[in-house]
TrEMBL record:
Domain DUF6533: 20-64
InterPro entries: DUF6533
Keyword Transmembrane: yes
Keywords: Membrane, Transmembrane, Transmembrane helix
Protein's UniProt keywords contain Zinc-finger: no
UniProt-recorded name of the protein: DUF6533 domain-containing protein
Transmembrane parts of this sequence: 20-41, 53-74, 129-147, 154-175, 199-218, 239-257, 263-283
Length: 319
């Protein structure tokens, strides 16, 4: 039986944790898509040429396609070729320390494998930023619509976006150090300084989500009389911003308390959850607009979720 060192076993375990969390995010997206398929066909596919429907379809299916494509590169069980080559390299170096040609040949193969992994990780990071940016822009547009695009709210949100992006880019890196971990799978270990920088970017996103939540809360309580008694918190939960804030908070905690491999294990799941919540928000707004026969003076926004539930209780047909 082949003996596996403790470091290799620990890394293999960390890889499984990362991949299983990522897989859980994809399962969540697919499951949510199946649950909401009826509403999607009713309100999105029947008017797919409208801008809101096209935006919804882009958010929903681009995220699902991106997550699935990245999943192909994952290894859920055994050590892959890179680990075996690296282990062989260590063993040959130990047994034949003077055979420079053989060692250099294996080192070149390992370097090419690492370069491919680094490129893949860079692409994964850019796609994650793209998806989170789409979610953030959509939530900002929803809050602006909630306030009927008031000039002061536009200025506040634009200034906040600039400040948060600047803070994320200017996060101190601290003292970096090189991690001497044997590579396993297509994953790159990060130093503590790099973890702090990435955590700072997610903290800036969380600050933006909290600002959007605060603006939503303010709008809700200033129009409290227009919402049925006892429905306010149900409206806010269904609005989704609270769920996105909690998911980002859990992801940030993992960045600070996870090790050099698992610190970003919740990132994929957080992005998938944010996309699922956002798509539900958009579908619920369509349903609320279809059920609402009156007007609250606020336009089509998250406050109309109360009318959705009220209409359903009265036996109204959502079509």
């Amino acid at each position: 039986m082949q003996t596996v060192t403790l470091d290799e076993a620990a890394i293999a375990h960390d890889l499984r944790v990362i991949h299983y969390f990522y897989l859980a995010g994809i399962v969540l997206l697919i499951y949510d898509n199946l649950l909401m398929l009826d509403l999607e066909v009713r309100f999105i596919w029947k008017s797919w040429r409208s801008r809101t429907s096209a935006w919804y379809l882009f958010i929903r299916y681009s995220s699902l396609c991106i997550r699935t494509m990245v999943l192909v590169s994952f290894d859920f069980g055994h050590f892959n070729l890179e680990v075996r080559v690296n282990t062989l390299h260590l063993e040959i170096t130990h047994i034949f320390p003077k055979d420079v040609g053989l060692v250099l040949s294996i080192s070149r193969n390992l370097t090419r494998s690492r370069n491919r992994c680094n490129k893949l990780n860079t692409v994964k990071g850019l796609l994650t930023v793209l998806q989170e940016g789409i979610v953030g822009c959509t939530l900002i547009l929803r809050v602006l619509a909630l306030y009927s695009f008031e000039r002061r709210i536009v200025i506040i949100l634009v200034a906040a976006v600039i400040i948060f992006i600047s803070l994320a880019a200017a996060m101190p890196t601290g003292l970096s150090h090189t991690l001497n971990l044997p590579p396993s799978g297509c994953i790159t270990p990060y130093s503590s300084a790099e973890q702090v920088r990435e955590a700072g970017a997610w903290e800036a996103m969380l600050a933006g989500d909290v600002l959007l939540l605060g603006l939503t809360l303010y709008r809700v309580y200033t129009h409290e009389r227009e919402i049925p008694t006892g429905r306010i918190w149900r409206v806010l939960i269904r609005d989704g911003t609270i769920i996105i804030c909690l998911a980002n908070l859990a992801n940030i905690l993992m960045f600070h308390f996870g090790d050099s491999l698992t610190f970003s294990s919740l990132t994929g799941f957080t992005v998938s959850l944010s996309v699922a919540v956002l798509c539900r928000l958009m579908l619920n707004l369509h349903l609320a607009a279809a059920l609402n026969t009156g007007t609250t003076g606020l336009g089509t926004n998250s406050l109309r979720f109360a009318h959705t539930e009220e209409g359903a209780d009265n036996g109204l047909d959502p079509t």
